[in-house]
């Protein structure tokens, strides 16, 4: 099939991919290849293929047209800035929350600028700026819970699903920034060029989610 007629969907690796598979299966779009090894995978629908990529890369692939659609967490969209994408549907999968956490018993020091470790510097900056607070942001890429335990930061901003990892490391949630679910996003040019097929997929996704 001509690539111009193929709809490419970028899927986020990890938990989102796992929870996307039953939804895709219900639409007859099961991956028809090894999703653990391949980065580009055909689907059982001849005109749909998948890219299996890191969640943080999904908005970029969709924004620049390397993928027509994508499934990605709302946290990534908030950090990326989603203005360049259509975000037509909340898929209501991979549910979690974005929270501020601190060591149990933590008490802020008056007059001291708060140090926050996070992989979400933009979200964190906006969150505290909305309250008129200036904070020092330390960007990390993993092992967030360690930062306050070794004095690198006072608190962290991170995703929380069950809270078990926080608890195991002596941390507690002290504030919720907001709930996070996975969203379906669409490239704006693709929405025009492949409108009929993408619109059909959107209707099917929405019916499956609501059903």
Protein described:
With 211 residues, the chain is α/β, with parallel strands linked by helices. The protein folds into two domains: 3-94 and 181-210, D-Maltodextrin-Binding Protein, domain 2, CATH 3.40.190; 96-179, Periplasmic binding protein-like II (D-Maltodextrin-Binding Protein, domain 2, 3-Layer(aba) Sandwich), CATH 3.40.190. It is built from eight helices and eleven strands. It has helices spanning 15-26, 58-63, 74-80, 121-129, 146-149, 164-168, 188-193, 195-210, and strands spanning 7-12, 40-42, 48-53, 69-73, 85-90, 96-103, 115-118, 136-139, 155-160, 171-180, 182-187. Strands 2-3-1-4-11-5 form a six-stranded mixed beta sheet.
Q: In terms of structural class, how would the helical and strand content be classed?
A: alpha/beta
- Terminal CA distance: 32 Å
- What is the molecular shape? elongated
Read across the widest sheet, the strand sequence of neighbours is 2-3-1-4-11-5
The percentage helix is: 25-40%
How many beta-strand runs?
11
Report the C-alpha radius of gyration, rounded. 19 Å
- Count structural domains: 2
**Which fold name corresponds to the CATH topology of the largest domain?**
D-Maltodextrin-Binding Protein, domain 2
In the predicted model, the low-confidence regions spanning at least 5 consecutive residues are none
- The CATH H-level superfamily of the largest domain is Periplasmic binding protein-like II
Specify the CATH class of the largest domain: Alpha Beta
The sequence of SSEs as H and E is: EHEEHEHEEEHEHEHEEHH
**Strand proportion:** 25-35%
Average predicted confidence as pLDDT:
95
Number of separate helices: 8
Major beta-sheet overview? 6 strands, mixed
Can you tell me the CATH architecture of the largest domain? Answer: 3-Layer(aba) Sandwich
């Amino acid at each position: 099939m001509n690539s111009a007629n193929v709809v490419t969907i970028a899927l986020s690796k990890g938990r989102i991919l796992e929870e996307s598979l039953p939804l895709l299966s219900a639409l007859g779009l099961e991956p028809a290849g090894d999703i653990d090894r391949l980065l580009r995978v055909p689907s059982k629908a001849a005109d749909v293929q998948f890219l299996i990529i890191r969640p943080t890369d999904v908005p970029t692939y969709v924004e620049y047209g390397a993928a027509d659609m994508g499934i990605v967490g709302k946290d990534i969209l908030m950090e990326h800035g989603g203005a360049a994408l259509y975000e037509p549907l909340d898929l209501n999968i991979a549910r979690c929350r974005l929270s501020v956490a601190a060591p149990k018993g933590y008490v802020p020091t008056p007059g001291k600028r708060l140090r926050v470790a996070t992989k979400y510097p933009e979200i964190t900056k906006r969150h505290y700026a909305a309250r008129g607070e200036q904070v020092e942001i330390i960007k990390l890429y993993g092992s967030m819970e360690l930062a306050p335990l070794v004095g690198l930061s006072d608190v962290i901003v991170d995703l929380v699903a069950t809270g078990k990892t926080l608890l195991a490391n002596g941390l507690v949630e002290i504030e919720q920034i907001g709930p996070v679910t996975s969203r379906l996003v669409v490239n704006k040019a693709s929405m025009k060029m492949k409108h009929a097929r993408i619109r059909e997929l959107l209707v099917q996704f929405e019916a499956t989610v609501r059903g």
